């Protein structure tokens, strides 16, 4: 049965591209190969890591490119035919990822002379920057395809990106186990080839289909099953040593699960065929009226859409910037210092490694859950989405307090809280940006706000955690600090910072109540 290209084909293609775009989440796996082959010490490797974080959170160019070549208002033509689309953004990102990782692999294997540190930083920056193009194209296109379910679809897209690190490592370790050097070559080839295969299917369709909510719920269920399967695999592999046939079977099951979203496309196609056989004049007139209402609302919203400069001049922009700096900044600082925190609290390296491996799962739960729940509550309770940033930052504050207290098992409980509610910021912030500032320049605006994450992480990691830890070490007789006092004040400060971010989010909630009332009314008028 032939299936015409539609928004469901586009969504599945985006999901599959997202599944291979999480290379940056696996830096801790391949960074030892870079460190050993280039003769770096830890501080030098940290410099490379800084360029990774900077490239991953500097997606403004990807947003500008999307607005120019792929947004509904762009008019790129060749010989009288439209040739623009998200595929241009995806291809640009894929090329950057390929070049960055391939040059890195050539350096690690000694195929080319050992590059100076600035060149290795450039390779890392290029690879990380390319990921922002892939993410921007997939997320913005998904929001354009499902404007009435933006929270859910952003949660799904961001969720699969969060899972992709675990997916990539699982597929790689099926054969190579713990050899990081070939993994860098895989990172240069797999995302590049995967994007080339599916990029032409990623398109925006300005249509509304019956059973959208039902199909999105099914897709959400599939994503939860995949996350649960990966969670089980990680736990099993941390406790047991699996032979090659078992690893192959586990990976084959994972690939089957990743292919299962195709069921949604087949289901939506059969539903459309059934409806086409049972249409009558009354249904056609109803759809025409609904289409007119949607066009009217769409033209009205485009008039009020803001570009980047206009958005920067608003209080709402800086509210989102501050909440993102506090949420993502403290979250990044927590995961980046996990090994040192675990060591000071007496956790073994195996325990901290297990926690780090599960970070992508908690991340997914937050990304997906916040998007789905905020969508449901928005249209049932009419609560504006910023209230969920306030709630999630409040729980992050509790997580930081739990780690600061340092009771037995505190790191497990606190790390789960921080991981889940840190992940939620990645779906809530882009969705709110699309609703507050419009979708015409959505990619540029939310990528600009994302820059606040590494800025917040720098100040927390260097000016707070690093300074206070060194001060505690200076009071002792060894080069290391052991005990709950080592990081207690740092996590108390992070708890206070996220609490203040929660208060800013509540202010944004009250500022945007009228806007969200209009959003709910718009959806109700289109669906009535």
Description:
It comes from Lactuca saligna (Willowleaf lettuce). With 528 residues, the protein is mainly α. It has 23 helices and two strands. Helix 7 (150-173) packs across helix 19 (410-437), helix 14 (315-336) crosses helix 21 (452-475) and helix 15 (338-344) runs antiparallel to helix 16 (349-357). The longest helix is centred in the N-terminal third of the chain and has 29 residues, at 117-145. The model is unreliable at 274-291 and 296-300 (pLDDT under 50).
Care to give the gist of this entry?
This protein is mainly alpha-helical and 528 residues long.
Keywords, separated by commas or semicolons:
globular; single chain; mainly alpha; two-stranded antiparallel ribbon; 23 helices; 528 residues; 1% strand
Write the layout of secondary structure elements.
Elements: H1 7-18, H2 27-38, H3 42-56, H4 60-69, E1 77-78, E2 81-82, H5 86-108, H6 117-145, H7 150-173, H8 180-198, H9 212-239, H10 244-259, H11 262-277, H12 281-304, H13 308-312, H14 315-336, H15 338-344, H16 349-357, H17 359-380, H18 386-405, H19 410-437, H20 442-450, H21 452-475, H22 485-511, H23 513-527
Antiparallel strand pairs: 1-2
Helix pairs in contact: 1-6, 1-7, 1-8, 2-3, 2-8, 3-6, 4-5, 4-6, 4-20, 5-6, 5-8, 6-7, 7-9, 7-17, 7-19, 9-10, 9-17, 12-23, 14-19, 14-21, 14-22, 15-16, 17-19, 18-19, 18-22, 19-20, 21-22
